[in-house]
Hints:
Two copies of one chain form a homodimer. Chain A is of the alpha+beta class and 297 residues long. Chain A folds into two domains: 2-118, Arc Repressor Mutant, subunit A, CATH 1.10.10.10; 145-289, Gcn5-related N-acetyltransferase (GNAT) (Aminopeptidase, 3-Layer(aba) Sandwich). Helix content of chain A is 45%, strand content 21%. Chain A is built from nine helices and ten strands. The first copy, chain A, has helices at residues 2-19, 33-43, 50-57, 61-73, 95-116, 121-142, 153-169, 230-244, 259-267; strands at 48-49, 77-82, 85-93, 144-148, 187-193, 196-205, 213-221, 249-254, 271-273, 284-289. In chain A, strands 4-5-6-7-8-10-9 form a seven-stranded mixed sheet. The first copy, chain A, has a three-stranded antiparallel sheet with strand order 1-3-2. In chain A, a hairpin with a 2-residue loop joins strand 5 (187-193) and strand 6. In chain A, helix 2 packs across helix 4 (61-73) and helix 2 packs across helix 5. The longest helix of chain A has 22 residues, at 95-116. The radius of gyration of chain A is 24 Å and the shape is globular. The two termini of chain A are 17 Å apart. At the A-B interface, helix 1, helix 5 and helix 6 of A face helix 1, helix 5 and helix 6 of B. Chain B binds a DNA duplex (30 and 30 nucleotides) through residues 32-35, 49-51, 54, 59-66, 69, 81-82, 85-89. Chains A, B: GO terms for molecular function: acyltransferase activity.
Amino acid sequence: MSTTIAVLRGFNRTYTQRIGVLDESFLGTGRALAVSRLLFEIGSRHHTTVRDLREQLGLDSGHVARMLRSLEGEGLVETAPDPDDGRRRLVRLTQDGRKAWRELDERSEALAAQLVDPLTTRQQERLAEALATADLLVRAATVQLREVAPGDPVAREATARYFDELDERFPAGFDPGGPEEPQPGTTSVVATSDGRPVAHGGLRPLPDLDHVTAEVKRMWVDPGWRGAGLGARMLRHLEALARDRGFTRVVLDTNDSLLEAIALYERAGYRRIGRYNDNPYARAWFEKGLGQIQTEG
Amino acid sequence: MSTTIAVLRGFNRTYTQRIGVLDESFLGTGRALAVSRLLFEIGSRHHTTVRDLREQLGLDSGHVARMLRSLEGEGLVETAPDPDDGRRRLVRLTQDGRKAWRELDERSEALAAQLVDPLTTRQQERLAEALATADLLVRAATVQLREVAPGDPVAREATARYFDELDERFPAGFDPGGPEEPQPGTTSVVATSDGRPVAHGGLRPLPDLDHVTAEVKRMWVDPGWRGAGLGARMLRHLEALARDRGFTRVVLDTNDSLLEAIALYERAGYRRIGRYNDNPYARAWFEKGLGQIQTEG
DNA sequence: GAGGTTATCTGACTAAAGTCAGACGTTGTG
DNA sequence: CACAACGTCTGACTTTAGTCAGATAACCTC
């Protein structure tokens, strides 16, 4: 849709002219803009390292170090070596820093309030709805899918959240059965945003079988990120991966209480088949041939 | 709605991290970011003056002058005195400048395309719709209403567009009857965006009457700006103005083919009354008492 | 046509942002 | 335990951005 691009660019213009000034809440505090931004970022996280900040804000390491010295000089932040890794330094706000952060937060809040003030309640609701939709879609569009080692901490976090959700949703609960033991040949694909997993999918050769069938495991999308096609994207990604590895067929199992998942599989061209494993939690089984070529960026 | 503010601020965060990079299309051209922005702005307008650019981009006059010298040095822009006012200088792109502008435009387009690429067509449509809504509401929220002298060029442009629209919409056309002659006591309120009128409303004492009734005239909202409450805002503004001047009642006339206008007046608390003037184009007459206090920012 | 205003420009700055090389200690690997 | 890789820091820059005080010419008003 080329019109989407035009609308996006048009909005970009409106945004920089009218909402971009929200950043001005960081001005006039006697600190440089970049320093204020850094302060705000530190306060917006529980605890963070210099590296995280550098990455998040896309700044040079020397630049960040200098700004941190400046904030330390003001008595707003303090740093300490990370006990887990002595190379890293943890950064956090002091009491005064928290106060300065709150001031920034309030300024920003006030500016935002002023911006929407001329609108009626009804219009504000429409605006909030539109922005929430745009927010979700833009975040989903810019998320990167990447393969990680089976024992990767991000993958662990994702599967832990997946199991928690199953436990909540299954009428009789869910027990993964013993601690995680990465199975050989398994691949984990995660989508991360700001370092935290927002979607996960696993792929492994279906054991004791024909070498042409792969199984999709542990498909999960963070509840806050649903409705933006992340599940479908993950599925396409896994299928492409399976195809690259010479598989010609994908199967998966699921539970009938996971309605969205079933709808997703059906939309993606999966067909119901009979039970192919002895997974006690499975109630539905699907397959899809990997004949035709599909694309996934 | 405090949630609107939260959503707006959340979106702001997503935006600066993910869409803000659209500006990076201005980087890596061997020119400073601000210079590229200026070049892009010049090329986005038909012809423009130094003053317009300064105002649009919110820059210091010395800064702009220097950047223009730099662009002239590259052979990308040329300036000439404005024949209408020798103090001003017109700025426009040269052949080479147009080429450089096109390059920037293409980079920006490509970045935007890349951003939305992971989304399905359906999701892109949802995104475009959400952004278009947000765009309209944000623009409407940040537009300023201001009183102008009756002969002001902006007011003239607005009424000219209003008359054109009436001429188009009335089955038998519309003839304003002779050239504009500003009537004594008339006030014009305009909403402008980037210097062009997007809404207009007039107010005058109702002639030969009681000195307590004001008449709203020439209510008009640019078609591209409808649906964001600008009409209602204008009406509230005019009512506040009338109240300030001691009027206790407002009347207005309209034509029954202007359905949105009639709906607007009814929503705003206007009641139909009998004909109070001999306007040949009027088919409906309304009044509203200015008893209770309402607010308009 | 005198006097104030407006638009643009130059010179002379300061502050902020960003870059790069290298030092130093910590950690993971073979 | 040697060695490469990593995370952070300092020093020594360069580039950009932005500011302010005039100078100059054109315009507007009375």
